[in-house]
Amino acid sequence: MGGIAYYDYFYIYQRNQNLWSTLFLSQTQAISSFSELLAVFRSFWHWKFEYLNFAQWLLVILGLISFLRSIRDKNKDRLLVLIIIALGYLGFIVLFGKQFIYHDYYALATFGPGLVYLMILGLKILSERPNKGISTLILFVLALVSFSVGSSHYFERMNEYVVMGNQQYRHDFKWLKDIDETTDLYLNDTSKVFVIYEAEPNLALVYLHKKGIVFNREEMGREESNFYYWLDRRKPGFILCRNANLEMFKKEHTVFIEDTDVAFQNSDFTLFEVNGH
Question: Do 238 and 267 touch, CB atoms closer than 8 A?
C-alpha cells in the first residue's frame, strides 16, 4: 500500500500538477448528487456497443444469471466476490465518476474487468452443457460473430468521421498521413518535437514516430503557458504547427517565434527549428 501511495503521489499527482492537468484520475472529482450518479451510468451506456457487441453482451447476461444463481444457492465464495466488486465500484465511481464523461476509456477501464469476469462465467455455462456438440457449435458461432462484428467495427473507427452512440465524431488525422516521410528528412531518431494547437493528445507523435509533447489550443493560449515550462525542461529541437493555426501562433508567441527558423513548410504544416538545438 505504501508503494502504491508513493507512486500515486510522485508519478501521478505531482506530474499532473506540473502539467496543470486535472484529468486522468489525477485527483478526485467526487459525485455530489444522485443526478450526477445517473449521468455517470448514462455516459457508460453511451459506449455500450463500442467495445462489446451483442454476442459478447449475451455472454455477460449468461454470466450474470450464473452469478445470481450461485448466490441463491448460498455460494459463499461468489457472494464474497460480489461484495468486493460492488464496494470497489461504488467507492471508485463516487470518488472519480465525474471524469467518466471526458473519455470513454475511463468507463471502459472501470467496468471492463467486471464485464470480462461475467463473460468468463457465461462461457463456463455454455461449456458445461451435457451435449458437447451443441456447446461447441454455440461457442463457434459466438466467436465468429464477435470477430466479424469487431473487425468491421474496427475499420469503421479508423475513418475520419465516426458515429458512436448516435453522435458523429471527427478524428482529424488525414493531414498526418505519411508525415514522417517528409519530416524524417529533417529529424533524426533522437529529435524531440512539440506539436502545437492540436486537440488530440499524442496522435501527431504517433504519426511522426518521435518523442515530444502535444499542446492543445487552450494550453497555448494561456497567459503563463506550460509550453514554456516544458520547453526549458525537454528542450525540443523542432516545433510543428499546422498552417491553419500559424497566425494564432505568431500572434500569441511573437517573441518565441523570432528565435526559430522554418525548416520545412508545405500546404498542411510548418516545421520550425528552435535555435540553439
Answer: no
Region of 171 (left: φ > 0; alpha: ψ -120 to 50; beta: rest) is beta
Instruction: State the residue for C-alpha cell 518521435.
Output: 210
Q: At what angle do helices 34-46 and 104-127 cross, to 10 degrees?
A: 70
The residues, ordered by sequence, that sit 6+ positions from 235 with a Cβ below 8 Å of its Cβ are 192, 277
Indicate the pairing of strand 211-215 with strand 192-196. parallel
Separation CA 66–CA 62 (nearest Å): 6
Unique residue bearing C-alpha cell 450464473: 66
Write out pLDDT tens, residues 131-161. Answer: 777 878 888 888 888 888 888 878 887 787 8
Phi, psi of 168 (to 5 degrees): -100, 135
The span from the CA of 51 to the CA of 165, in Å, is 12
pLDDT in tens, 101-123: 666 677 777 788 888 888 888 88
CA distance 2 to 190: 36
Q: Which residue, chain included where needed, has cell 525540443?
A: 236
- CA of 229: how far to CAs of 199, 209, 233, 255, in Å? 19, 23, 7, 15
CB within 8 Å of 187: residues ≥ 6 apart = 193, 208, 210, 237, 238
Report the 10 Å Cβ neighbour count for 194: 22
Q: What is the grid cell recorded at 214?
A: 502535444
- Residue 25 is given by DSSP the state T
